[in-house]
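Section 4.2 – Deliverable D4.2 (structural model, holo form)

The reporting period included a commitment to supply a predicted holo structure for the target in complex with phosphoric acid mono(formamide)ester. Inputs used:
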Amino acid sequence: MNIKQRDFLSTGDFTNEELTALIDLAAKIKAREYTERPLAGRSVALVFFNPSLRTRTSMEIAVYELGGNTTSLDIGKGTWSLEYRENVLMDGDKTEHIKEAARVLSRYVAAIGVRAFPEMHNYAEDMQDAVVRGFARYSDVPVVNLESSRFHPFQALADLMTIREKLGALNHQRVVLSWAYHPKPLPMAVPNSFALITAQFGLDLTIACPPEYDLGNEMMQEINNASAASGGRVALSRDYRKACSGAKIIYAKSWGGKDFYGNPQADIAARQAYQDWRIDEAVMRSTDHGWFMHCLPVRRNVVVTDGVLDGEQSAAIDEAENRLHVQKAVLASIL
Ligand code: CP
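Output (C-alpha cells):
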C-alpha cells in the first residue's frame, strides 16, 4: 500500500485493500509490534471548530507517540475566526479566510487535521463539506478529517477494526445501524460513515430509523453502490427492535432529520414520537450474542440503558481505544 501524502477525508476515497492494510497496521500498533517514530521532528496542526474529547486527545497522543508534536487550534477561541465561503465580502465577524490559514499552516506542519460540524441550516450545503474540503484544497500538506458535516472516517475505521476484533470475519455479518432518541438533532457524519464502511466491506447492513430520519438520497446511493460492489446487502427498517433481532452488531446513534435543517424546533417536535428508540437489555437479548457499539459521547438511559452500556457485550470503550491505533496507522502511512 502506498498512500503517502494523501488526504484522509472519507473511507470512500480508499480501496478495501488500503483500508484493510490500515487496520492491519493499527492491530500491529495495538499489539505493540510497531515501534517506529515516523513523525520525529515533525508537527501536525489540529484545527477544531467544535468540541471533542476522544478525537483531540487521541490525535495529540497518536502524533506524540509517533515521535511528533501537535499544535491544537480552537477556532475563534484564542485563534482568529475563519471564513470558508468562496468569493465573499468579509465585512462580518470572520477575521481570516481558510485560504490563508491552510497555506500558512502548511508552511509549519506535516499534516492538518480539521473538525468542522455542520451548521444544520441547509442540508445540501452542509453535505458539500466546505470547511474540510476547503482546507484540503488550499493546504500543501495532507488534510485528515476529524469529523466533518458528512463524514467521520477515523471513527468508521476504528468501528470496523472493533467489529473485526469482536467477530473475526467481516463479510456478510448482520449489523444494525439504529437511530436512537436524543433531545437534540445531531450531525449525520457518524451514521453516514458507519453505513458506508460496512457497505464497502460487504456486511449485511440494516439501517433502522423513523421515516423522518432517513439518510440523504445521495448518501444512500453511495452506500448502495459500495454494497453492490462488495457483495453486501443494505436494508431499511422502521422497527428497530425487529431489525436488531438476530444481529451481531447493534450500532446506536442519534442524528437530525435532513428535512429539518434550518428548523431545529420542528425536528425536536418530530422526535418526541420516538422517545422509546433506546437500546435496552431486551433488544440485546434478541441479538445473536450481539455487541453494542456507539462512537461516544452518549446520553445514558436516553440512547442506551446503563445495563447495556456497562454490560459485557458493550464495545464502546474498545471503539474509543481503537481510534488511537487507527489514527496512528493513517498518520504513519500518509506521512
Ligand atoms: N467519537 C468522537 O469523535 O468523540 P469526540 O467528539 O469526543 O471527539
